[in-house]
Give the backbone structure.
Amino acid sequence: MNMTQTAAEQRLAALGLDDMPVMEFCPRACAVKPDWFEKYRQLRHEFMRSLMSDSIQELAFINLSQDEFQALIMGQRMPANMSLRFRVPLNWGGELAIDNLFMCRTFPHSHNLDRFIIEQNGGEKIWLPNPAKKVYVPAHTAGGGDGGNATSDRLAQMAAQLAANRGME
């Protein structure tokens, strides 16, 4: 089924992802190299480590514990209920590259994105989720109150301390 961009955006809104940008894509079957998973595992660690330099604000809004935050930005492990997604799936020609990945909550966001893509099955063109940043946080959860955001402040301080300890100031 081919959707228009407006229809795709309306469907995402119905799935609770009303601020998720989309990109038009014409899927074509591509062979995935047999060693893709080992390369993906390495890329996954690189992606997690890269979050410290440019995604601290977004990480603040997913309410991680200190241990989860440190394990994430050290590239050790993903927090519970968080997923890495390909912007363009490998079997459609997507690349194993940091800029082809984004992180979001597994439930409900990743599950709903799967539903959205599957519903377009068979279309000559489809709409793929394409958030502007590496970490997708819905706009309705990203606003702080008048008193500031203690989680954001705490994570920013932790990141600054980790950067100082690594000599990355």
